[in-house]
Amino acid sequence: MNAPTLLLVLLMVGTLTVTAQPASSQKIGHADTDYIFSQLPEFKRIQSELQTFETQLQNQLKVKSSELETKYKAYQTMPPTTPDAIRADKESELTYLQENLQKFREEAVASIQKKQNDLVTPVFERISKSIKEVALENGYTYILNPRNGGGADMLLFSDDKYNVADLVLKKLGVIPKLP
Prior knowledge:
By secondary structure, the protein is mainly alpha-helical. The protein has helices at 3-20, 33-39, 42-76, 84-137, 165-171, and strands at residues 28-30, 142-144, 155-158.
């Protein structure tokens, strides 16, 4: 074996030896917050409340859409001899109703999102608090969320003693500010 090949083999063996050694006694767990939420008694209540709210908004949307459709059909069936002033008035009314309908749709989407946040946020705060308590009681260093979809946090808990942010700042020549 030539010297460069021997050096490469020694480096690989050294790397394997270092990485094969056990890390400090850190425990890592995981908790699927969506699963936890779906098992809580308030899940069905929240789901039902959101569905009822959404149905109410959809019914209001149907009424507004029906009104616009009825007025549009009436406009289309106006005789050709209808004065321009009346025709312009009806067109203006149709434009107003169309804009009002679009505004209602946008507000309905925002309203549903707000209602969902208002109902779900306190539950997820309770779940987060419980995860932290379980982690501390059972000696976990990190708790991860295995299903990080929909913007959910991936890291649900971390032991602050493993936070290296201040060390990185010092390495960069920055003195960490106290919180």
